């Protein structure tokens, strides 16, 4: 299986300046390659691909030895592949009839990652194994100290350096990472995702939704008001932008931490976990509509969308899938339709069964339960039925 490992970098001031310049040069290469494609197609109707642009790298590096020539050719090829993937995604969306979104030029602050192949191409992990401190070697930057807080397993395939606010991280993408199966528990569970609680299991266990964005809302609002008063291009505005970015980064880290803890608790407790196959993008689509056809309950829908995104369902499900695969647990996704309206005891489905956000009482048999627990039991039943059908097929 493939996994990623992220570690904090501790560069010297000289190395941090070199990393910043490396990002800037790769950003300029990305933008120049994008302009090349646009001009070739706009003026001559010629489509330029990755192969042609990669072949030109040798001349570009030769013409600019103190700029593009000082960085790894492998990392520059990865930047060109990144642009090629952006165009491939653009054409895929056009073909599917969706909103296309033509690839854009990257401004300062919009290009924060550079990737290197980890095989003799300007980067190597644990470059000085005899040293007690782990270091990563990057061509043009040197041996950068890494705060390695856990063991790396598998074969390192790519090494990426990412800037977040004033901090630097290294991301290792590893293949052939061995699974770490947990002992069987003999217990199965369905989980219902929600806004009041992040997740509720069919046996009544609840994982709190910490609402990290809401908790930081006042500080974010103050920082954004301060940003709005700053003049564009000024040093004070750059500092204000950095403060807003730092607050959003803090919210993201806290949300990730909560998702990891909840997912780990689930995979340790249950052999089979069933969850709803949610279409989060559709669920959080704006209700504003158009001038001709305005949406309904726009303010309420905006608040619900914000709460759903603050809960981080997508992040949680992604982390849960990764941990379940590593632990040897079975994860099943089921259709979420009517799971919150159906009685888990008699199977009667009616809108009136759901009294309130937390209250459920069946109008047919009188069964009363917490609404999330009732939904989780329906999700579990649907998942086990799907599992049996797959085994019988």
TrEMBL record:
Cas12f1-like TNB domain residues: 313-379
Domain named Transposase putative helix-turn-helix: residues: 1-43
Probable transposase IS891/IS1136/IS1341 domain span: 178-286
InterPro entries in UniProt: Cas12f1-like_TNB, RNA-guided_DNA_endo/Transpos, Transposase, Transposase_put_HTH
Pfam families the UniProt entry points to: Cas12f1-like_TNB, HTH_OrfB_IS605, OrfB_IS605
Top-level taxon: Bacteria
Keywords for this protein: DNA recombination, DNA-binding, Metal-binding, Transposition, Zinc
Family that this chain belongs to: In the N-terminal section; belongs to the transposase 2 family.
Protein name according to UniProt: Transposase
The species this protein was found in: Nonomuraea roseoviolacea subsp. carminata
């Amino acid at each position: 299986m493939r996994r990623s490992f992220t570690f904090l970098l501790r560069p010297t001031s000289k190395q941090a300046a070199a990393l910043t310049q490396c990002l800037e040069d790769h950003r300029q290469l990305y933008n120049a390659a994008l302009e090349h494609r646009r001009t070739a197609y706009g003026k001559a109707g010629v489509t330029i691909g990755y192969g042609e642009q990669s072949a030109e790298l040798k001349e570009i590096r030769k013409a600019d030895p103190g700029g593009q020539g000082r960085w790894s050719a492998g990392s520059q090829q990865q930047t060109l592949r990144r642009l090629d993937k952006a165009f491939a995604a653009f054409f895929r969306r056009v073909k599917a009839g969706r909103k296309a979104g033509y690839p854009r030029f990257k401004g300062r602050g919009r290009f924060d990652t550079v990737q290197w192949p980890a095989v003799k191409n300007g980067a190597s992990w644990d470059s000085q194994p005899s040293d007690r401190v782990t270091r990563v070697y990057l061509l043009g930057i040197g041996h950068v100290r890494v705060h390695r807080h856990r063991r790396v397993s598998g074969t390192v395939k790519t090494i990426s350096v990412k800037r977040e606010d004033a901090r630097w991280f290294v991301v290792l993408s590893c293949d052939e990472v061995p699974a770490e199966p947990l002992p069987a528990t003999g217990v199965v569970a369905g989980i219902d995702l929600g806004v009041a609680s992040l997740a509720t299991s069919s046996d009544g266990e609840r994982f709190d939704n910490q609402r990290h964005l809401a908790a930081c809302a006042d500080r974010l609002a103050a920082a954004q008001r301060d940003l709005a008063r700053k003049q564009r291009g000024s040093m004070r505005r750059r500092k204000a932008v950095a403060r807003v970015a730092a607050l959003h980064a803090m919210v993201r880290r806290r949300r990730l931490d909560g998702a990891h803890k909840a997912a780990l608790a689930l995979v340790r407790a249950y052999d089979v976990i069933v969850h709803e196959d949610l279409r989060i993008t559709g669920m959080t689509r704006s209700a504003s509509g158009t001038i001709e056809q305005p949406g309904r309950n726009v303010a309420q829908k905006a608040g619900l969308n914000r709460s759903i995104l603050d809960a981080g369902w997508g992040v949680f499900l992604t982390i849960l899938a990764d941990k379940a695969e590593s632990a040897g647990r079975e994860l099943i996704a089921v259709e979420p339709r009517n799971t919150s309206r159906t009685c888990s005891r008699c199977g009667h489905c009616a809108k009136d069964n759901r009294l309130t956000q937390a209250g459920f009482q069946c109008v047919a048999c009188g069964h009363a339960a917490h609404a999330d627990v009732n939904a989780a039991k329906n999700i579990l039943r649907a998942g086990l039925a799907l599992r049996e059908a797959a085994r019988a097929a």
